Amino acid sequence: MPSVAPLLEVKDLTVGFRTDRGDVTAIEDVSFQVRPGEILGIVGESGCGKSVTSRSIMRLLPEQNSFIDHRSEILFNGVNLAHTDESVMRSIRGNRIAMIFQEPMTALNPVFTIGWQLDEALKYHTPMNKLQRREHAIEMLRSVDIPHPRQRYCEYPHQLSGGMRQRVVIALALCCGPELLLADEPTTALDVTIQAQILSLMDELRKKSDTAVVLITHDLGVIAQICDRVVVMYAGQIVETADVESLFARPQHPYTKALLESIPLPGPAHHQTRLPTIDGLVPSLFELPSGCRFQDRCPYQDEQCVREPPSLSQESNLRKVRCFFPINES
What we know:
The protein is an alpha/beta fold and about 325 residues long. About 35% of the residues lie in helices and about 20% in strands.
């Protein structure tokens, strides 16, 4: 996979918001690549910048009170989405790049049928006639394992279960054959059985169509199940990137290590064991520390961590870590 040219290349992405308290930077110098057929996971606590990153790629942030730094680049097949015209984005958004939103009930319009919503996307982005669009939409519902797709095509979102609504959202995202799929917490609020089915479905679809996926989640179990590489974010910055196997076997950033240690383990030996926690709170974006942003919660803190911010160093070809004292446990 490293020899394949990246489909998406995010370079030094810095995004901020204008507020009553002044401008605040939500994400800073975020850089990563995604190749065709690859699933990249972005993980971190709530508020770390995961969703802002995905919405920046789609240019779905409110224009009146958000801004992307002029040095930032979001290269999609050579086109810089960070600063391109909205007319170009409209031709790409929903067509070549699609997004699965976190809550399926808000992603679907409750007053229109499932079929109408699928037809609307196809009508805008494809040259199909009405009959072709209908048959393609029904086939898309069938491809995401929705039973009786012709019947569901005529139904409204409230007539479907949560799991089936999420499948419709996936069908809606995939109906125009996107090259890149952004999935923002696609399994939130679903029970574990439906969650596993949705993840399996996403993995199967990317293998069939070679679609690249950026999966936004706070669930490391989901990351371990289907992702190829992982980006770990904290307080608006990337603190570690690695392939899944290396990250879970040998985390190098203290925050990554703490996240992995907080995962409940199966078996009776762990039932009476108190889960480790990460002391302290994520710093406010308005009051970020001058040095490392994780310093107040880090058991390995040193004077250098307080004095200056660490850079994202290249540990290997596929691994980077933002730490003066990375963990090197074998």
